[in-house]
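[job 0412] stage=fold_complex status=start
inputs:
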Amino acid sequence: MSVRVYISRDAAAQALGADETAAALQVAAAARGTGITLKRVGSRGMVWLEPLVEVEDANGQRIAYGPLTADRVPELVKAGLFAAAPHELRLGRVEDLPWFAKQERLTFARVGVTDPVDLDDYVAHGGYAGLKRALGMAGAEIVDEVLESGLRGRGGAAFPTGIKWRTVLEQHAVQKYVVCNADEGDSGTFSDRMLMEGDPLCLVEGMTIAAIAVGATRGYIYLRCEYPHAGHALREAIDVARARGYLGPDVCGSGRAFELEVRMGAGAYICGEETALLESLEGKRAEVRYRPPLPAIKGLFGQPTIINNVISLASVPIILERGAAFYRDYGMGRSRGTLPIQLAGNLMHGGLVEKAFGVTLRELLYDFGGGSASGRPIRAVQVGGPLGAYLPESQFDTPLDYEAFTAIGALVGHGGIVAFDDTVDMARMARYAMEFCAIESCGKCTPCRIGSTRGVEVIDRILQGVERQANLAQLENLCETMQHGSLCGLGGMTPFPVMSAVKHFPGDFSRDR
Amino acid sequence: MAATEFDNDSTLERILAEHAGMAGPLLPILHAVQDALGHIAPEHVARIAAALNLSRAEVHGVVSFYHYFRQHEPGRHVLQVCRAEACQAMHCERTEQHVKQQLGVDYGGTSPDGVFTLEAAYCLGNCAAAPTVMVDEKLYGRVTPERLEAILAEWRNR
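[job 0412] stage=fold_complex status=done
writing structure:
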């Protein structure tokens, strides 16, 4: 009998040697004459334990070992890895590990468990139950279900997903589109990537439900080109879904058509902004559009378009499967459901944690994250990507909740948390925020295009100790102009990391270097 | 040289034919050209513009807007170094300095031996195992200067 062995094909696992471990396992098994069936799955999200290997024991339980690099494979195999024998790297069942057991995995329920592109595996784990239910409902009923669930845009803007859908449903047009914003450019975020690599059919199903709800027949996944692995997984998933009748001219025999295609971005952060993304899909320079009109009314090629982030769309299948109330029961205040949170930067236990809204930063940084990787005190945390505020230790008890973060001048964004230890120079981080804005500005509006370059110059003068007070006042003035005068969030929110650094870490801007 | 130019021409014509009838075809065409030919040259721009009934300025404007599209021939491998916040939190500047020194180039440049083109990346999505670099499509996490040397040595021979 063949032993089932699971190992991740996620890019982060590959970056730590998962492919080499998989090859070494095959070699070692062959040498011993042990038959193994190697299944490549998504990542469980415990990146510090990658490459993570799970071996199915005699009782059908998946026993994890990690981190298991290729060089240690012979030793582990000798110790009885294929019989799930004891070893210092043996972790037991993943579901029993505190880090994993404390999570609420709704959107990520299958990630790391199933073969990402095996449709039967997907269906056996609840896949396509949401679509099946949706196909028996009127479009307005599907939209109401999403609205009732309280789901808000997980890309960062937190706009109610159901309202976008309702607006598109109400439009009369020959052609409507569903576009997935998979341009996950924020530093410290990788939940979209993990979902697309680990459970791409879930995104395909979510987009199909969206299309059925509003009467769209074409969909595009706009994927950043930095994610080649996700591109491969998505194309495989789309091919298998089409071959099995879940996509194409007649979705599940419903008589409804939905065609889906992956389009690659080309290294422009601005494409995370939805109107810039639409311009790019149309084959133009990704310059932000004025609004109105909203994309829901005039979107891709001038037609009504649903445009949602990967996690928003991938949360739809479970909402349709289990009902709006099930999803809405998680969370706090007006932040309903769960958020896949990404622990990144200088943390001992980095990875993906899916939790209901309401968990505090401190719990995430210390209970899940295990404190800094360097062992030094955590001095600052940036939440929500390069446009998110830097938070000092005094704000670590803030619960992850859209409104609670807004109240302290910060943002939850896409749920990325980047921790820095006490070696960080916050004036340099503020300078980098301006530099990044200058590199990625689309150039359409002046406050962003010129302001960011001036911002770098002003901070350089502060760093050099030239007229510090005057230049700090100038910086504040400039940030105010950018915040209120920019066309989109890039110029409009770059002041958040800059001014939060000035406010919470003033010493870094006043010392001589 | 003439044979190469001819090959490039036929590759371009094949790509244009494959994308005929596609909605919003410019980015997919530019990707296909760069994948096949390594970069997008001015003569390609002219031909693509003619095929799509666009001006050369419009196509050039798109090529030059996106960081990923390249107007010059790259080295044998493209080495991307992530310099976004999560990597900075793990001191990627050490890796950056080291790689620039090892290759003798700055971002955008190609090493004199023609092996590596060095590019800055703004997040490769491997933020829980920073610092990160990517060679072609192969991602590497927790890249210290020492580990980087091994990576460079490995790819130099490929």
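[job 0412] summary: Chain A has a mean pLDDT of 98.
[job 0412] exit 0
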